[in-house]
Amino acid sequence: MTAGIDTSGLSSTVRPQDDLYRHANGPWLEQHEIPADKAIYGAFHALSASAEQDVRAIVEKTVAAGHPDGSEPRKVADLYSSFMDEETIERRGAEPIADQLALVRGVEDLGGLAEALGRLELQGVNGIFYTWIDVDAKKSDEYVTYVMQGGISLPDESYYREDNFAEIRTAYVGHVARMLELAGLPDASGAAERILELETRIAAGHWDRVKSRDVTLTYNKVDRAGLEELTPGFDWSRWLTGYDVPEHVIAQVVVREPDFFTAAATALREVELDRWKEWLSWRIVHGAAPLLSKAFVDENFAFYGKTLTGAPELRERWKRGVGVVESALGEALGQLYVAEHFPPVAKARMVELVANLVEAYRQRIDALEWMGPDTRQRALEKLGTFLPKIGYPDKWKDYSALEVDPADLFGNVRRSVAVETARELAKLGQPVDRTEWKMTPQTVNAYYNPRMNEIVFPAGILQPPFFDLDADDAVNYGAIGAVIGHEIGHGFDDQGSRYDAAGNINDWWTSEDRAAFEERTGKLVAQYDALSPAEVADQHVNGKLTLGENIGDLGGLSIAYVAYQLSLDGAEPPVIDGLTGSQRFFLSWAHAWSTKTRAEEAARRLAIDPHSPPEFRCNAVVKNIDEFHDTFGVTENDGMWLAPEERVKIW
């Protein structure tokens, strides 16, 4: 067993008592450059890059192997080959989207526009709203159709109104004009100005990201008549015809932002049809750009890469090709990935870690001084029904309906969207499939799904530096243990805590306990509101937007520490390389967040990302944990000091 902490990478000039993040990562931050094709890079991204290389090797092996026609490996090979066939893609230019643009040109009235929106959604073109099928958040044994706001092409509604994004809006108009010109559309410059004006109106109807994450506000279930009442003048029958789906798809609908749908319907009636046709043509060009010829790809990257994120170079073609295969055939690749990169012993070790984290949560909930017995009992009931999923699904997706042509990239992607849409729509009226995963096994991430009350850990993240079969327990608990704790914690964050053990939105709290919880979360909001990342020191974290993730981080690390102590079973951990077990635990947590970010990307993430910047996911969390202060002997004269009465303790 190894220590798992490279002490040569620790800073000799920054003390952990003053800045844990820069003590653990200082030399790395000084010496490493962000790769030219990335806007942000750190431990997560390095592991993702490694997984990407592994997947590339698998894909190229399938290309060389000559698998039988119709087999999933052959589909993987042919889809990748179609993306790498630059000669055919260049020759076709904008021809793949000609029929879609012709469809829009032929629209003569609002009913025709609604039908075109439906038909294009079936082909992967995002319209004025998004539609998907998911578990009903108040009837978790049924599926229901959800609809949510859309229609904008900048990252967030704030980009259309805030002064600090004015230069981006100007650059956006130039980008839209160039793209429309490449597609051969008339009056490209004038159309670009009008598209920004229309999208600004659409964005004005959007709920902001803080309001949009409220699970109670965004659950508005209506029947067909209620949907039509919300959207006067929008022809849902024509939309269904275009989307080629039966009427029962919108017999019951959860509308996430009712105000938006009313505002959008008003705009559809008041803005002249030709303006909408320009906008929809732009949506077609924008959505297809990464799959078209080099001129489209380069212009798309110039704005969405360089301008918005600061990344100076486009990702290599093979990386983008792997991404397309992941999107269309993710679990087919996942089966191949798991066979090569996820040994059974890793799954067994994770089962043990998860069990210890759940037990640690149970002990902490049992001991909470601010929670009454009734709410505590319901919290323990919910914890006891958590479903862990580790590594890969028990049942794999079937891709037999997807036809792949090695000479037709755009057609392959369009057909993939249609197949996945049909797969989703087929869920309506069927029993909920609790074996389904929302991430592929090769993904370097994890998630909590409140409607299933499940925590999911794909094989991709179960590798060093997060999970190392050969490493000391302290390091594994400080990294993957905290990730496990984080995902469990989402079941008890400000939004996840509104779901009960069965996965339904249901107020299982007493009013006194909810008030005590919100007093603590309010203090956490204030702590994070005061923080500004080094890359954009004049901009602040949004404590309300990031609250759920901050609760997850704080609870996850706190509980992981308890679980680590449980794993020791009373034994004293050894000192390794001069570091105690507790020191290795907190240093492991700090290493997990080692990250460098370009200023443009830092600003973009502050606007849209529910996660706090990496340095705060490290430092702001540990400041609230008594054991961190005890481990490193932090005093009120040190930079990491937070007075005991100011420390937030939730779970």
From TrEMBL:
Output the SUPFAM superfamilies linked to this UniProt entry: Metalloproteases ('zincins'), catalytic domain (SSF55486)
Q: Which GO terms describe its cellular component?
A: plasma membrane
Q: Which UniProt keywords apply?
A: Hydrolase, Metal-binding, Metalloprotease, Protease, Zinc
Where is the Peptidase M13 N-terminal domain positioned along the sequence? 16-393
Q: Which Pfam families match?
A: Peptidase_M13, Peptidase_M13_N
**Family the entry assigns:** Belongs to the peptidase M13 family.
- What are the GO BP annotations of this UniProt entry? protein processing
- Please give the cofactor(s) recorded in the UniProt entry for this protein: Zn(2+)
InterPro entries, sorted: MetalloPept_cat_dom_sf (IPR024079), Peptidase_M13 (IPR000718), Peptidase_M13_C (IPR018497), Peptidase_M13_dom_2 (IPR042089), Peptidase_M13_N (IPR008753)
According to the UniProt entry, its GO molecular function terms are:
metal ion binding; metalloendopeptidase activity
**What is the phylogenetic placement of the source species in the record?**
Bacteria, Bacillati, Actinomycetota, Actinomycetes, Propionibacteriales
Q: Where is the Peptidase M13 C-terminal domain?
A: 445-648
Task: Give the matching PANTHER family.
Answer: FI17812P1-RELATED, ZINC METALLOPROTEASE FAMILY M13 NEPRILYSIN-RELATED
* Protein name (record): Putative endopeptidase
